[in-house]
């Protein structure tokens, strides 16, 4: 069994409104799976179905090969986008309560909380009330509560919102560490640079339908444009640019060079290879820069959603 | 089950530790007792205020009618005309001036009696004067017509109807009063409990929504568990508060009355006296005996069992509705439109209890409303001391529990959807749609 979580043709309607239409996803064990999509696409509904907060109208979800059941709750840690804590409760008491709701014994919960509080350097907050903490501090507590019961599946909905860059990095490292220890992570966000950094697999949902999914590298290959960013050291810049424009699709670009190089994005036609281009360029001058432009997750997101609309 | 007990414990502890809850628990009986003490003290003051009323009796018929009492002194003015008498009364700072015109015909005279005063006179004073004058003038008129008053007095007969049920149970009017007190107290207690703690449940649901913790919680527990846990936890806190109120109130009451020497039960005693007058029994000793008898005659066991059952199911019925309202809205100001349909039957029940059950505990209206689920807990609790057949109680309870189960299901549906809905205030139509999600 390579997939920890599988959703098979899940649909959900709220009255007349279709929130999810026949969506299937497979989340491989030990991966970080990016669940992407514009606002209102249906991501949260899907996450709520996985958490058994909402029931699907049709379709079913399996965890570790078994249909979702109430006892799976302790195997999942969920950090919702709309999150908060009881304002007038003390940090330690509250964390203990939430941990025990996930099925930990009091003793076990205490020990683990101690470990995590030390780890994130918030040990002296135990007796503080949530309303005395800043938003970022409360988020740390919330993160700990989500991962405390060592779930197989972690679901983070916009985990970095409210964190300063230092703490965001800290949390990112913790997520990666948890993944390395065997957890599988579903990660829902609008911040494409963190998708780029973290995710191995993604699924893109738009208007209740899944429009794209797979390994991030495969998808990038699929969206590759055969465009190369080149730098060329030559005496006859303008003449060469004219020549190139007859043979290839070119566009001006900019990057850091030491000399006054000719800088271009060059898109190859279908029957050309990068070697053809490189050979041609090297016959015209000294090639100082030659990089394939790989589409970013951001480009893919925008393009896929645009095409779908 | 483990989850439920965790939730109940948390709800209970947060409620009980809450500062305003603690302050309310301690201050309420203090304020109540202080109020009662002040009222008792003031009414004592009021009673001991001595008033002087000047009387200008031109007819000379009232000489022996108006006797001085502890608080009222009558000063008869002689040989003055009305204007001078007014001046005397005003200068002497008398409470007022009673003026009777010098007419021989009693019928005419009765129409020309006036009371002059600086401020509006007290209603009880005027009616007591009226009573005294009426009696005196009636006696005089009867004497004029040659009727022997002594004979009339001698022929007066007092009737007290002895009451007995077909099976031989003796009852009396005081019985009804005792029953009324028990039934009324039970019904009113439930009413208060629903209003105070139902609101508390609603607020705590709204708090969970506004602090956005709700989704974190219901990824661990079922919404219905959370809702029931909330209701039970808050109710236990409520019972704790009530118990403290009763104990603290009792202690304070005795302490205050010892220190100040004010009989706080006096006002209650005054009411008892009124009741006694209403019952018009000549023998006070017999009266107390009757009251005790009435108390022992109450279906005590039935009362206790029925109280617990109707109280619990009635309270849970309403509190689940309160929880559903809390889930449907985002903040407390939006609750108004949904509160009305809850409060209406509750208030209706109390009014029916007060006006109809007293008049006719087994009449059509009382009986019907003691079966309608939203009013039955209050109305039935008020009826039971008067003796309600067991089959009626069971039927009413069955209807109530059936409704209760339906309401919890209904409330849980609203709750489940509502707690995840933010933003606009839902309409009834939308609530109906939520039932189908």
Could you provide a short overview of the structure?
The complex is a heterodimer of chains A (309) and B (437). Chain A has 309 residues and is an alpha/beta fold.
Instruction: Name the poorly predicted regions of chain B.
Output: 266-274, 276-282
In the predicted model, the low-confidence regions of chain A spanning at least 5 consecutive residues are: none
Hey, roughly how much beta strand do the residues of chain B contain?
5-15%
CATH C-level category of the largest domain in chain A: Alpha Beta
Oligomer: heterodimer
- Beta-strand fraction estimate of chain A: 25-35%
How would you sum up the major sheet of chain B? Answer: 4 strands, mixed
Spatial order of the strands forming the largest sheet of chain A: 6-7-8-3-9-10
GO cellular component, one term (chain B): membrane
Keywords (chain B): Membrane, Transmembrane, Transmembrane helix
Main location (chain B): membrane
GO molecular function (chain B): ABC-type transporter activity
Question: Could you describe the 3D structure shown?
Answer:
The complex is a heterodimer of chains A (309) and B (437). By secondary structure, chain A is α/β, with parallel strands linked by helices. Chain A folds into 2 domains: 3-221, P-loop containing nucleotide triphosphate hydrolases (Rossmann fold, 3-Layer(aba) Sandwich), CATH 3.40.50.300; 225-293, Alpha-Beta Plaits, CATH 3.30.70. Chain A has 10 helices and 14 strands. Chain A has helices at 43-50, 91-101, 106-119, 135-147, 165-180, 192-198, 216-222, 237-247, 274-284, 297-308, and strands spanning 3-14, 17-28, 32-36, 58-63, 66-67, 76-79, 153-157, 184-188, 201-206, 209-215, 227-233, 249-252, 262-267, 286-292. In chain A, the strands form 3 sheets. Chain A has a 6-stranded mixed sheet, sandwiched between helices. In chain A, strand 4 (58-63) and strand 5 (66-67) form a beta hairpin. The longest helix of chain A has 16 residues, at 165-180. Chain A is elongated and about 75 Å long. By secondary structure, chain B is an alpha/beta fold. Among the domains of chain B are: 50-151, Periplasmic binding protein-like II (D-Maltodextrin-Binding Protein, domain 2), CATH 3.40.190.10; 182-243 and 298-434, no CATH class. Helix content of chain B is 69%, strand content 6%. In chain B, the strands form 2 sheets. Chain B has a 4-stranded mixed sheet with strand order 2-1-3-4, covered by helices on one side. In chain B, a hairpin with a 5-residue loop joins strand 5 and strand 6. Chain B is elongated, with a radius of gyration of 30 Å. The two termini of chain B are 26 Å apart. The model of chain B is unreliable at 266-274 and 276-282 (pLDDT under 50). At the A-B interface, helix 2 of A face helix 1 and helix 8 of B.
């Amino acid at each position: 069994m390579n997939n920890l979580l599988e959703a098979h043709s899940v649909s959900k309607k709220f009255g007349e409104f279709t929130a999810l239409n026949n969506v299937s996803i497979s989340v491989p064990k030990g991966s970080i799976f990016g669940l992407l999509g514009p606002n209102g696409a249906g991501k949260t509904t899907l996450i709520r179905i996985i958490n058994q907060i909402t029931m699907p109208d049709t379709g079913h979800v399996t965890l570790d090969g078994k249909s979702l059941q109430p006892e799976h709750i302790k195997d999942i840690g969920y950090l919702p986008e709309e999150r908060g804590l009881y304002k007038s409760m003390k940090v330690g008491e509250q964390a203990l309560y939430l941990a025990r709701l996930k099925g930990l014994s009091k003793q076990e919960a205490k020990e683990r909380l101690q470990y995590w509080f030390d780890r994130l350097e918030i040990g002296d907050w135990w007796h503080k009330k949530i309303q005395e903490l800043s938003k970022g501090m409360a988020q740390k507590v919330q993160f700990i509560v989500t991962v405390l019961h060592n779930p197989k599946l972690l679901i983070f909905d916009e985990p970095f919102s409210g964190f300063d860059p230092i703490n965001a990095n800290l949390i990112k490292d913790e997520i990666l560490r948890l993944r390395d220890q065997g957890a599988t992570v579903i990660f829902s966000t609008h911040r494409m640079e963190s998708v780029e950094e973290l995710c191995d697999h993604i699924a893109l949902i738009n208007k209740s339908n899944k429009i794209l999914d797979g390994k991030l590298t495969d998808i990038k290959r699929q969206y590759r444009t055969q465009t190369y960013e080149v730098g060329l050291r030559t005496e006859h810049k303008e003449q060469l640019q004219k020549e190139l424009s007859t043979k290839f699709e070119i566009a001006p670009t900019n990057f850091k060079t030491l000399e006054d190089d000719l800088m271009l994005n060059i898109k190859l036609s279908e029957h050309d290879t990068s070697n053809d281009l490189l050979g041609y360029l090297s016959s015209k001058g000294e090639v100082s820069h030659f990089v394939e432009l790989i589409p970013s997750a951001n480009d893919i997101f925008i393009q896929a959603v645009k095409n779908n609309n | 089950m483990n989850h439920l007990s965790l939730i109940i414990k948390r709800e209970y502890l947060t409620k009980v530790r809450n500062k305003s809850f603690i302050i309310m628990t301690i201050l309420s009986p203090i304020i109540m007792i202080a109020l009662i003490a002040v009222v008792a003290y003031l009414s004592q003051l009021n009673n001991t205020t001595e008033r002087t009323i000047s009387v200008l009796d031109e007819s000379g018929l009232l000489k022996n009618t108006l006797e001085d009492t502890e608080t009222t002194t009558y000063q008869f003015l002689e040989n003055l005309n009305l204007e001078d008498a007014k001046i005397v009364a005003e200068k002497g700072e008398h409470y007022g001036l009673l003026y009777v015109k010098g007419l021989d015909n009693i019928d005419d005279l009765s129409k020309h009696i006036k009371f002059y005063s600086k401020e509006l006179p007290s209603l009880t004073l005027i009616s007591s004067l009226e009573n005294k004058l009426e009696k005196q003038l009636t006696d005089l008129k009867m004497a004029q017509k040659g009727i022997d008053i002594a004979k009339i007095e001698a022929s007066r007969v007092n009737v007290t109807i002895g009451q007995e049920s077909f099976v031989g149970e003796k009852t009396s009017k005081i019985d009804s009063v005792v029953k009324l007190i028990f039934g009324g107290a039970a019904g009113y207690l439930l009413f208060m409990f629903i209003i105070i703690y139902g609101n508390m449940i609603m607020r705590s649901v709204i708090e969970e929504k506004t602090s956005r913790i709700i989704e974190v919680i219901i990824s661990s527990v079922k919404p219905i568990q959370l809702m029931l846990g909330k209701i039970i936890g808050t109710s236990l806190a409520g019972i704790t508060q009530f118990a403290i109120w009763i104990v603290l109130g009792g202690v304070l009451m005795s302490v205050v009355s010892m220190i100040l020497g004010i009989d706080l039960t006096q006002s209650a005693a005054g009411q008892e006296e009124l009741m006694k007058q209403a019952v018009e029994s000549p023998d006070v000793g017999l009266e107390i005996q009757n009251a005790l008898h009435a108390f022992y005659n109450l279906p005590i066991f039935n009362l206790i069992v029925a109280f617990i059952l109707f109280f619990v199911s009635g309270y849970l019925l309403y509190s689940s509705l309160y929880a559903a309202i809390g889930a449907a809205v985002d903040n407390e100001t939006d609750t108004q439109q949904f509160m009305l349909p809850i409060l209406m039957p509750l208030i209706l029940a109390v009014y029916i209890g007060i006006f109809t059950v007293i008049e006719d505990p087994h009449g059509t209206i009382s009986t019907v409303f003691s079966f309608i689920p939203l009013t039955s807990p209050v109305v039935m609790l008020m009826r039971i001391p008067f003796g309600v057949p067991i089959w009626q109680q069971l039927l009413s309870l069955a209807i109530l529990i059936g409704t209760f189960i339906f309401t919890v299901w209904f409330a849980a549906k609203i709750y489940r959807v509502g707690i995840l809905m933010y933003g606009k205030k839902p309409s009834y139509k939308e609530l109906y749609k939520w039932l189908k999600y």
